[in-house]
Design brief:
Shape of chain A: rod-shaped
CATH class of chain B: Mainly Alpha
Oligomer: heterodimer
CATH architecture of chain B: Up-down Bundle
Order of helices and strands of chain A: H
Largest sheet of chain A: none
Structural class of chain B: mainly alpha
CATH topology of chain B: Four Helix Bundle (Hemerythrin (Met), subunit A)
Distance between the termini of chain A: 77 Å
Radius of gyration of chain A: 23 Å
Largest interface: A-B, 30 and 33 residues
Largest sheet of chain B: none
Radius of gyration of chain B: 20 Å
Helix content of chain A: over 70%
Number of strands of chain A: 0
Order of helices and strands of chain B: HHHHHHH
Number of strands of chain B: 0
Distance between the termini of chain B: 35 Å
Number of domains of chain B: 1
Number of helices of chain A: 1
Chain lengths: 53, 228
């Protein structure tokens, strides 16, 4: 019982940290994608504006 | 400046969490009946408190959005719901692992657990609804209405242990029982970890809000680019 108790306590802590880490990684990936998208759209707007004038 | 403040707060939350882990493992003894596994509750209970706080803020922000039509409230609502959902998953996972040892089962359809799962699914549905609507105003309005109604599920989840006495333990914290149901040192640790996790959640919400504003900028620039 004691050994299992410790093992499952470890699983509990590991699960909590894993979910947090996964969420932080999702945020980091989304930030990168958004910055890239923003750059692309900015360039697209600049090109279209220069064509229009 | 804002980046540096967020980074400093994130580091502060991390130091606070590490300090709490030290006290949990080296400062507090095993619980008489449960042994070492009770330490999971130092993450399980505060995670639920953090997500309930997030859902409350999301509900309040949704009311303010409908009243004032200021998009910043919509940004706040979606950010707190998303971060809250991450903490809901932590609450469900840690509770299930604790139950495996204490009850001998991973899951049971008792009132508190079932409502917790329903709450999780409702807020996941809220995020899916947002992805399904393209028009920003319609998206903000419809999701604000859903977010306000979704909060009733949070209230039912919180009160489930009082209304239906099933498998999940009843209230043990002193602000609900008047004291005596939990060791003061252990209860204090629980609140300290709530503080650390709440600070971490606040940093995550701030980062998520910045991303949502960036996404809106991308959307509006794309619409402008197609118009010219």
């Amino acid at each position: 019982m004691d050994a299992r108790n410790f093992t499952y306590m470890f699983y509990g802590f590991a699960a909590a940290w894993a979910i947090l880490a996964l969420y932080v990684l999702t945020l980091v990936a989304r930030e990168r994608r958004l910055r890239k998208e923003l750059d692309t759209v900015r360039r697209m707007v600049e090109q279209r504006e220069s064509k229009a004038t | 400046m804002r980046e540096k403040t967020l980074f400093a707060l994130g580091v502060l939350a991390a130091i606070w969490l590490v300090r709490n882990l030290y006290v949990m493992f080296l400062g507090l003894p095993d619980e008489a009946d449960q042994g070492a596994i009770y330490r999971i509750l130092f993450f399980h209970v505060p995670s639920w408190f953090v997500c309930f706080t997030g859902y409350f803020l999301a509900g309040a922000a949704s009311v303010l959005y409908l009243a004032r039509k200021n998009p910043v409230y919509d940004v706040l609502a979606v950010s707190t719901v998303e971060v809250g959902l991450a903490f809901t998953l932590i609450g469900l996972a840690t509770g299930s692992i604790w139950a495996r040892i204490i009850w001998g089962i991973w899951w049971t359809w008792d009132a508190r657990l079932t409502w917790a799962l329903i709450t999780c699914l409702i807020y996941a549905g809220y995020l899916m609804l947002r992805n399904a609507i393209d028009d920003p105003t319609t998206r903000a309005k419809n999701s604000a209405v859903l977010c306000i109604f979704a909060f009733t599920s949070v209230v039912i989840t919180y009160k489930a242990i009082d209304w239906w006495r099933t498998q999940h333990p009843g209230a043990v914290l002193s602000f609900r029982t008047g004291g005596g149901a939990m060791d003061p040192g252990m209860e204090s640790m629980l609140y300290q970890n709530f503080g650390a996790l709440l600070l971490l959640a606040a940093v995550l919400v701030a980062v998520r809000m910045r991303q949502e504003q960036m996404r809106r900028e991308v959307e509006s620039m794309r619409r402008y680019a197609h118009a010219i």
